[in-house]
What we know:
Elements: H1 2-18, E1 21-24, E2 36-39, E3 49-50, H2 52-58, E4 68-71, E5 76-80, E6 85-87, E7 102-103, E8 112-117, E9 120-123, E10 154-155, H3 166-169, E11 172-173, H4 175-178, E12 188-189, H5 193-203, E13 218-220, H6 224-228, E14 253-254, E15 262-263, E16 268-276, E17 280-286, E18 292-297, E19 308-309
Parallel strand pairs: 1-2, 3-4
Antiparallel strand pairs: 4-5, 5-6, 7-8, 8-9, 10-11, 12-19, 13-18, 14-15, 16-17, 17-18
Amino acid sequence: MNRILFLTFFLITVNFTFGQVKIGDNIQNIHPSAVFELETSDKGVLMPRLSTIQRDNDISTPIPAGLLIFNTDSVCLEVFDGSVWINLCNVSTLPANACTGVVPPSLDGHTYSIVPIGNQCWFAEDLRTSIFNNGTSIPFVEFDGNWFVSTPAYSIYYDGANSTYDDSYGFLYNHYAVREGTLCPLGWKVPDDEDWKMLAGEVDQTYNYGDAEWNGWGNVGDDAGQKLKSTTGWIAGMNGTDDYGFNGKPGGQRSTISPYGSEHFGDRSYYWTSVGNVSAILWRLNANSNQFWRDAMNPSRGNSIRCIKED
């Protein structure tokens, strides 16, 4: 008798395991290509509902690619792609595979990793070109006393005398180089102020894009800065979490104040926008803050450049 019961259970289990399952209306009619099908005219599927904190802290790792949840903070479905969580409310305008891999070599032979964040496609590293995309060379300023200029220029690290950090931190450009409009590779541009606001609103847990918070000066947002900072390189272990692959590194800036040397290397990263006249708008990441910093600065200073894909 026990053998009969065991055999019956085994056959039922095998049939269920290798068969098809349908829940809902008309359960006898299941599509031949489906292993699992839902059919109903008056109900929906309720996904697991988690806050961002619950998502990041409570889901067991390693997280499988394809895992789907409903984020109660962003009020949107999210899917894990194997490396980052993708907010499905923000993918409609970015074609599939439009932002993967690397940018083809520029005129001076450099390639750049890229990363999709929301509807935008960003460089995942800082620009390090010495040539405008029209083939014109960008003047290189090496000596401190020559840096305070009102014409396009770029510098390399440690007072223009040491190229050790170029691959990791890129070059520093004054805003006059930005104003040429040909600094980024063809098809890419220096982001304007609105582009940075959109990035900040996409990653911040509290303030969305369009919130008046991003129109302020100084510290803005809640934790956007922490999510964009790289996981290494910041002083005193004040690294970020780099949740989106932006990889913001603390490259500092080239000062216009004597002796015109590099400053804040290791504790700040400064990114020019394309906006500016007497002064130019920039966004800054800080070692000692989770927030973003929005500011305006003398266009002769040397700051990092992140390129964004043109619409």
